[in-house]
Each structure stands twice: as structure tokens, then as C-alpha cells.
UniProtKB/TrEMBL annotation:
It is a multi-pass membrane protein. Keywords: Cell membrane, Membrane, Transmembrane, Transmembrane helix. This is SURF1-like protein. Belongs to the SURF1 family. It is found in: Cell membrane; Membrane. Residues 242-280 are annotated as: Disordered.
Amino acid sequence: MRFLLKPGWIALTLTVAAFAFACYYLLAPWQFHRGDERSGDNAALVRAVSTAPVPRGELVAPGAAPGEDVAWRQVTVSGTYRPEGQVLVRLRSIEGHPASEVMTPLVTTTGETVLVDRGYVRTDGQGTLPAIAAPPGGTVSLTGYQRLDEGAPTRSAVVADGQRQVYSADAATVAAAGGVATSPGYVQLLPDQPGVLTAVPLPPPDPNPSYSYAWQWLIFGLMAIGAWIYFARLEYRRERGLEPRPRDRQDPRDAADGTHWDAARPSATDEKLADRYGRR
């Protein structure tokens, strides 16, 4: 199998080996890991929203950031809205339509200030905001989902349509724009709560195609190895003279004595001479 030492075959062998290694040890494991993460996120979301509401203070210490284990848990808070610190989160997409989410601080009865997502309003075709109803005064009791901060945006806050607006649902970012400091995270109101506008719906379950992608990478790696084996075997047989040439293969149209079907046929005179003097 000296042909394997030729530069072309060396390059092909290294390429196939690198591709198969990437498929089996990098790409497929990465997709399996992504699939496990997405399945875990889906299960956590279902488990969290199906759990009965509890006071927020039982899950999150005052002033502390909520952990991932309490994300989407239903919580209750009581307190008074502070509309002077209200800020909108712009450029959101809800059910396929552009919208802005309305974030309003709430001073709880325990003295902590938390951020409340009162829902969303839709913009018109020109991006203009409608009138936004003010939150109710006095002490209110609310139920919502505990959400984690999305992180600081890369774009600065703006003022448009008379509203302070930011690009991320992040408590620190909203506090910097609205002037009212709040604890990390925020509470996303359920429908029919005091001060809610149009409640932000729950996200749909992740379809999680990662497992099928992982199996595809495994199959691609196997196909690459199989193709290399096939062509190496073919080259080996040619090198040993075991692979017939194209003209050596019998055509179904050939004569029984092996004469090729498109060979020139002898004339009648040639046939008579051959019968009298024999064929060469």
C-alpha cells in the first residue's frame, strides 16, 4: 500500500482524520451538551411556573441577586409603586410584534425596592408609543415570576416619546436611567395583577434540535471514514491489478464469444474465405 505515502493520499488521510476527530470529540459532544442544557431549561421552566407562589423574601435575600434555581418561580410582593422611576425596555419582540416593556420600581412593605415588569405596550407602524396607564397608588399585593437580569446593554439609554428607555431588562440599567435604585432581578407580573398592562406571555418551550444535530455530526464522521476506506481499497486493487479496466467488463450487448457489440462485422466474402481457408 505504497500509494498511501503519496502527497495526495497523505493530505486526504490527514483531512479525513481531522474531520472525524472534530465530529466525534468536538462537534457532537458540544451539541449533546447544548441539548442537555436546553432540556434542563425547559424542565426548569415547567417546574417553576407550576409551583405555588411564595413570598419573594423566602427565595431571595433582600438586596441579593436571585439565583438561577429560582428563575421563573412564582413569587408574591406587597408594596407601593414609585412611578417616578419608571423606565421602558425598548425593541422587544412579543408574539412576533414589536413592543416595549414597562418597568416600575416598587417599595415593599419590608423596605426593599424591587423592579416590577408591568407588562408591555405595542408601538404603531411609525414606532410611536401609546399612552401608558399609571400604576395604582397605595399598597398593592402582586404575584409574578421572578426573573434574572439580562445584563447591561451595549447601547446607552434614550428619551423618546417622553419616556426614558433602555435596551435591556436589567435592574442596574433601569435604576441608572430612572434614578431609583432597586435590588437585582425583577418580578414579571401575571395577568390581572394591580398595575399590569398586558402581561408578558411565557416563552414557548425550546424545540431543542441539538440532539439531532449531534447524531448528524456522528454520521458525517462515519461517512468520511467509510469513504476513505472505499477509495483506499479501490486504489489498492488497481495497484495490484485486481480492478478490471472499463473495457474488460462484459457488456450485456456483447456476443457470447466475447466480441464487443460495436466491433466491425465481417463481410460476406470474408465469411466465405474464412470457411474455406480457416479463420486466423
